[in-house]
Amino acid sequence: MTQDTDYMQTEKTATLILDDGTVFRGFSFGCEKEVTGEVVFNTAMTGYPESLTDPSYAGQLMVLTYPLVGNYGVPPRTFDADGIATFMESEKIHADAIIVSDYSHEYSHWNAVGSLGSWLKEEGIPGIYGIDTRALTKKLREHGVMMGKIVIGDAKTDLTNFGQYGNVNYVDKVSCKEVIIYGEGEGKKRVVLVDCGVKHNIIRCLLKRNVTVIRVPWDYDFNTLEYDGLFISNGPGDPDTCDAAVQNIRKALSGDKPICGICMGNQLLAKAGGASIYKLKYGHRSHNQPVRMVGTEKCFITSQNHGYAVDNDTLSADWEPLFINMNDGTNEGIRHKTKPFFSSQFHPEACSGPTDTEFMFDKFVELL
Ligand SMILES: NC(=O)CC[C@H](N)C(=O)O
């Protein structure tokens, strides 16, 4: 058992203020700075290193409903020769803050190299504990997600400006800036991966299936490239801010090369096919979202992190829902009726969460 002893000297009080004026008081265990963002809750019991480094959390203050957080520390920030993180989902923390009930100042795990608190401090990310996350989650569930602010100590703060989430193009902030090629090799199938904020396990899952991955920026016109299949990644923010990607995907829809998308990828593929997206009240963020494959009795438990959804009623005649969420009936994936185009709103790559739907990658690679 290793102890995060920093806190004995330095921990200060911290406050979470929601944009309706509700105040939750706690203590700071990360970087001591004020931050604003969309307050969202995740009900997974584990996986804070993966969730914090998932680029889809950019702009959000992540509430974990599991009460004890930090007890297994954080893994090393190591990368393989291609620059893919060994134990995390990107190069850095993308969530703007973490909000927990009980932060464990002691940690123990075979792979831990430090405490969650010291990692947050190194990366300049606020963390607040001592929050009644049950009351906070009930509030978000009833009201819907809201903007919030974390204030350290008794600092005076502007309680009128909570920033905005919906109109910001977060994808542009987190996408790669130039083309990156992984696993190049003679005779291998070439997959273009549109990087809207890709989780590294999507790249790992593709490379494991022996394809070359050509990772391109979110607004890159990949239609000029030689490739065998198109993969569209997850990503943060509102899909309606990603029109350039939608235009490029729409061009690819006139061809027959396989297309697969995950989460933001599902939304952008749906938009390219003419469907609309709407914002869910409080989203799906957990490891246990049940989905049913349409036309079958097959159900899967899935890992999810999204706040928007495809409106099933707006799918054109060429498309149909592929998966439906068994809790609330919302869209969890689409497929084209005649061409090899399909996608999921959930995360088949997991990391963290159940790996039951990894077959989505097998299906895609088989079709190449
Ligand atoms: N993980 C994702 O790709 C999320 C997609 C989108 N930002 C949403 O919240 O719905």
UniProtKB/TrEMBL annotation:
<keyword id="KW-0315">Glutamine amidotransferase</keyword>
<feature type="domain" description="Carbamoyl-phosphate synthase small subunit N-terminal">
    <location>
        <begin position="12"/>
        <end position="151"/>
    </location>
</feature>
<dbReference type="InterPro" id="IPR029062">
    <property type="entry name" value="Class_I_gatase-like"/>
</dbReference>
<keyword id="KW-0028">Amino-acid biosynthesis</keyword>
<feature type="region of interest" description="CPSase">
    <location>
        <begin position="1"/>
        <end position="189"/>
    </location>
</feature>
<dbReference type="InterPro" id="IPR017926">
    <property type="entry name" value="GATASE"/>
</dbReference>
<keyword id="KW-0055">Arginine biosynthesis</keyword>
<dbReference type="InterPro" id="IPR006274">
    <property type="entry name" value="CarbamoylP_synth_ssu"/>
</dbReference>
<feature type="active site">
    <location>
        <position position="347"/>
    </location>
</feature>
<dbReference type="InterPro" id="IPR036480">
    <property type="entry name" value="CarbP_synth_ssu_N_sf"/>
</dbReference>
<feature type="binding site">
    <location>
        <position position="307"/>
    </location>
    <ligand>
        <name>L-glutamine</name>
    </ligand>
</feature>
<comment type="subunit">
    <text>Composed of two chains; the small (or glutamine) chain promotes the hydrolysis of glutamine to ammonia, which is used by the large (or ammonia) chain to synthesize carbamoyl phosphate. Tetramer of heterodimers (alpha,beta)4.</text>
</comment>
<comment type="pathway">
    <text>Amino-acid biosynthesis; L-arginine biosynthesis; carbamoyl phosphate from bicarbonate: step 1/1.</text>
</comment>
<protein>
    <recommendedName>
        <fullName>Carbamoyl phosphate synthase small chain</fullName>
        <ecNumber>6.3.5.5</ecNumber>
    </recommendedName>
</protein>
<dbReference type="Pfam" id="PF00988">
    <property type="entry name" value="CPSase_sm_chain"/>
</dbReference>
<keyword id="KW-0067">ATP-binding</keyword>
<feature type="active site" description="Nucleophile">
    <location>
        <position position="263"/>
    </location>
</feature>
<feature type="binding site">
    <location>
        <position position="267"/>
    </location>
    <ligand>
        <name>L-glutamine</name>
    </ligand>
</feature>
<feature type="binding site">
    <location>
        <position position="237"/>
    </location>
    <ligand>
        <name>L-glutamine</name>
    </ligand>
</feature>
<comment type="pathway">
    <text>Pyrimidine metabolism; UMP biosynthesis via de novo pathway; (S)-dihydroorotate from bicarbonate: step 1/3.</text>
</comment>
<keyword id="KW-0665">Pyrimidine biosynthesis</keyword>
<keyword id="KW-0547">Nucleotide-binding</keyword>
<feature type="binding site">
    <location>
        <position position="305"/>
    </location>
    <ligand>
        <name>L-glutamine</name>
    </ligand>
</feature>
<dbReference type="InterPro" id="IPR050472">
    <property type="entry name" value="Anth_synth/Amidotransfase"/>
</dbReference>
<feature type="active site">
    <location>
        <position position="349"/>
    </location>
</feature>
<dbReference type="Pfam" id="PF00117">
    <property type="entry name" value="GATase"/>
</dbReference>
<keyword id="KW-0436">Ligase</keyword>
<dbReference type="InterPro" id="IPR002474">
    <property type="entry name" value="CarbamoylP_synth_ssu_N"/>
</dbReference>
<feature type="binding site">
    <location>
        <position position="235"/>
    </location>
    <ligand>
        <name>L-glutamine</name>
    </ligand>
</feature>
<feature type="binding site">
    <location>
        <position position="56"/>
    </location>
    <ligand>
        <name>L-glutamine</name>
    </ligand>
</feature>
<feature type="binding site">
    <location>
        <position position="264"/>
    </location>
    <ligand>
        <name>L-glutamine</name>
    </ligand>
</feature>
<feature type="binding site">
    <location>
        <position position="308"/>
    </location>
    <ligand>
        <name>L-glutamine</name>
    </ligand>
</feature>
<dbReference type="GO" id="GO:0004088">
    <property type="term" value="F:carbamoyl-phosphate synthase (glutamine-hydrolyzing) activity"/>
</dbReference>
<comment type="function">
    <text>Small subunit of the glutamine-dependent carbamoyl phosphate synthetase (CPSase). CPSase catalyzes the formation of carbamoyl phosphate from the ammonia moiety of glutamine, carbonate, and phosphate donated by ATP, constituting the first step of 2 biosynthetic pathways, one leading to arginine and/or urea and the other to pyrimidine nucleotides. The small subunit (glutamine amidotransferase) binds and cleaves glutamine to supply the large subunit with the substrate ammonia.</text>
</comment>
<dbReference type="InterPro" id="IPR035686">
    <property type="entry name" value="CPSase_GATase1"/>
</dbReference>
<comment type="similarity">
    <text>Belongs to the CarA family.</text>
</comment>
